[in-house]
C-alpha cells in the first residue's frame, strides 16, 4: 500500500478534543492536498472525525473552517498553481473558498465508532486511559478487515502495553503531538517492541509532510516531554517546601516558585502557569499513568491531589483563554495565587513585596522573548547565568539549583534510556515547550 | 504641445495621516475611521485654507476601488458631507487605478482652463485596510488587464513588477540593481521619518539597506521583490485647491502662496497589451517629456520630483524615464545619493509611496501637495533646498503597469 493509499481512508478518535481537533486539521489538510494532486484525480479521500458528542463535533467543524481559512490565506501563492486548470476561480478569495470546501469535503463527523471499521489508518487522541485505549483498539481491530495501522497520541502510556493488550501485532506507533498540534512543531515518535518497520517509515514520511520536527523516544512511560515536565513539577513542590521552611506562606511559595521558574530561568511560563495551561487534572492523571512504570521513583505529589480535591483544575476555555487554576488570571496576567491550606485565592498585590524581599537581590534576567529564536542568545544568557552563579540571595540560590535540577532530569532521561541522546532532550524542551535553551547545558559549570 | 491658455495655480494642500502597518496607532483588529472620515478631514483641511466652501465652484474626487474596499460608489456625493456649502455644486468622480489622483488634478486643471470654474476642490483617497493584504491584491488587480488575472500571481500587481525586476536583473545585473533598490528604500524611510503624516514616520530600523537586501522568498511572496520593495497598504486622503488668478483673488490668497501649473502630460497606453519594454516605463517617459515640453523647460531646471515608486523597481525605472540616468544606470545614479534629500535631485521628499504610503486613489494629489509645500518652503522638517536657478517641481503619477500617466510641472 502506498503512502497515498494508506491515507485514503482515515479515522481520528477523539476528534473534538484539544489534541484530536488539531491532528484532525493537519490530517484533513494533508489528505486534501493529496486529493488535489493531478495523479489522484478520481480518488476519494475520507477522514472520519469520531467523537462522543454531536455538539462537540459541530464545534470542531467550526474550528476546522476557521483554521483552514488561515492556512489557505498563507499558502494562496501555491494554491493558485494547484487550481490553475479551474478557469472559473480567478480571485484569491475564490481560490481560498474552494480550498476550504475541498478540505472540509474530506471530513465526515460522526459519533459512531463503526465508521473506523473501513479505515486503513486510525489516529487516536482519546482520554489517557490504557484500558480504554486497549478496548477500543481491539474492537476496531477485530471488526476492520483492512488490518489498520494505529497512531496513538498518548503522552505517557507505553506503546508496547497497548500493542500487546489490543493484539495489534506491531501495527501501532506512538505519534505524540504537542499542544496545539497545528502550531507546535514537535512530534515524539515511539516504537513499541513490535512496531513494524513500514509503520515507522510511514510515520516519518507523514511527519515530514506536516513539517514536524521528529524526536524519537524509547517506549518508557512519559517519554521525553512529560518525563521532564512531571519531574519538573515534583521539583517545584520541593522548592515550595524549602521556601516555606524559610518562612513563606504556601501561596507566597507558589508565587515565588512560579516566578523563579519563569523569569529567572528565562522560560515562557512559570511551572504553575504551565500546570494551569495543561490542566491540574491532566498533570495529575499523567503522573498516575506514568507512576506504575517508573521503578525506584515516586511520580506523584500530594499537592496536586489536594488542589483537585478543592476543585482547582485549570485548563482552558474553548476560545483558548486560561481558566483559573493554581493561579487566577486577568487578561492573561497572574493576579492571585491559590492557598490550598486556607482554600482561598490570595491577591498577588498583597504578597509581591514580601516575596521579593524574602528572595533578595536578583541579577536582571534577559526577557524570554528576546532570547527565544535569537541566534546570538548565548550573548544574553551567558552573562546572566554567570551573574546568577555568584549572586548570594535566597532567590539566586533557588534559581541556580533549579537550572541544575532541570539538567539532572534531562541527563536522567538519557541515562535511563528514555531519550537517545542529550540533543534529543534539548530539542523536545526547545521545540515542544518553547524553552529558550535546552536543559542540558553548561551554564552552571 | 500648446501652451496653457490661462494661468492655473494650486494651493492649500492637505494630507491626512497615511494609516496602516508601520504606524504605532494602527491596530487592524480595532475599528478605524471610515472613508467618509478621511474625505472629510482632507476636504475640510483645504477648505479652511481657502475661506470656506462658498469660494468653491466645482469639486472632483479621485478614488480607485471604494466599491470593493468599502462597498461604496457614487463618491462625488460625499462633497456636501464635507461641507454643507458644497450642496448642489457640480462634482465628479474620476478613476484611473493608482493614477487616479493625477486624473483628479487634470480634471480640475481642465475646468480652470475651460473657464467653467475659478476654484476647484480636488480630493483623492483610498481606505484599504478593510481587508487583509491577500484580498487587497484581488481588489487592486483590476488596475491591470482582467484577462491576465487568472494566470497572474496571487499578489497580481506586485507579481507584474517582480517580473519587471527580473527582466531588469537579467539585462543590467542583479547585484547592482538590488543595491539600487535597497538605497531607494533607505531614502524613502529616511524621508518618511521627517514627515509626521507618513506611514513609516515611526520606523526605527537601524540598517535599512541591510534589511532591504534580504533575499526574496518566491514560496510565500515574490521571486524578485521583498515586502520592503513594495509600497504600503494605506488609508489616507489628500486635498488641494486648483485655481485661476481670479480664484486666488476671490479667496484672498496672494499668488506668492500658490504654485503655478506650467505644464502637464496626460497619456494613456493600451491596457490589453504587455509593456513594449519590460525594463522601461515608456508611457511615463512620454508623459514626463510632454509635461516638460509643455512647460518649456528641461529636467535640469527641476529641483525636486514626486514620482510613482509603487515598487523600488518602478522608482529606479522612473529615474531613467525622467532622463536623469540612461537606461540601466538608474541603480548607480540612486546608489550615488543623487536622489537622497541632500543629493542634487531629491525625489519623494516625504517618503513617496514606499515611505509616506500609497492610498491608491489619493497618491497623485499627495504628490501635488508635497511639491506645493516644498516649492513654497512649507515642508517643515522635510524641506529640501530649492536652488534659485531651478524653481520647478515635477510629479509623475502612474495607474496600472505604466498605463495611465499624469505628469505635471509646477513653478515656485
What secondary-structure arrangement, pairings included, does this model have?
The complex is a heterodimer of chains A (445) and B (412).
Chain A: H1 3-6, E1 9-13, H2 18-35, E2 46-50, H3 54-74, H4 76-82, H5 92-104, E3 107-110, E4 121-124, H6 130-143, E5 149-152, H7 159-166, E6 172-177, E7 186-191, H8 197-209, E8 213-217, H9 225-245, H10 250-264, H11 271-278, H12 280-290, H13 302-309, E9 327-330, E10 333-339, E11 344-347, H14 348-359, H15 368-371, H16 377-390, H17 394-415, H18 422-432
Parallel strand pairs in A: 1-2, 1-4, 2-3, 4-5, 5-6, 7-8
Antiparallel strand pairs in A: 6-7, 9-10, 10-11
Helix pairs in contact in A: 2-3, 3-5, 6-7, 9-10, 9-17, 10-14, 10-17, 11-12, 12-13, 16-17
Chain B: E1 8-15, H1 35-49, E2 58-62, H2 66-69, H3 79-82, E3 91-94, H4 100-113, E4 119-127, H5 133-140, H6 156-172, H7 174-192, H8 208-212, E5 235-243, H9 245-251, E6 259-268, H10 282-295, E7 302-307, H11 312-321, H12 330-335, H13 352-355, H14 363-375, E8 392-399, E9 404-411
Parallel strand pairs in B: 2-3, 2-4, 7-8
Antiparallel strand pairs in B: 1-5, 1-6, 4-5, 6-9, 8-9
Helix pairs in contact in B: 4-14, 6-7, 7-11
